[in-house]
Design brief:
Layout (H helix, E strand, L loop, with lengths): L2 E6 L5 E5 L18 E3 L14 H6 L4 H10 L4 H10 L1
Antiparallel strand pairs: 1-2, 1-3
């Protein structure tokens, strides 16, 4: 069941109410009793989890440029070991 936010135009009281989508919006303020409630538009708070969503399927794959930069940044250890092998 969705949670709706309301604000009273008379006393500025804000509150949340769980209602079915098919129910009519509330009209009377529970604090002052006046019929000046307005339903607010608020951000939705949910997260898509599991496979089949952008974040899990595509976002986590490394890009070719990022992989190339990581391999170029690593110092080469073959220079010091090859010079030691030649001197023996």
């Amino acid at each position: 069941m969705p949670i709706y936010e309301y604000r009273c135009g008379a006393c500025d009281h804000e509150f949340e109410a769980r209602q079915k989508m098919s129910e009519d919006p509330l009209k009377e303020c529970p604090d002052c009793g006046k019929a000046e409630l307005k339903k607010l538009i608020s951000a939705v708070g949910f997260r898509l989890k599991g496979t089949g969503w952008y974040e899990t399927d595509f976002k986590s794959k490394p890009k070719a440029d990022a992989v190339a930069k990581k391999t170029d940044a690593k110092p080469s250890s073959s220079g010091s070991s090859s010079s030691a092998a030649k001197s023996n």
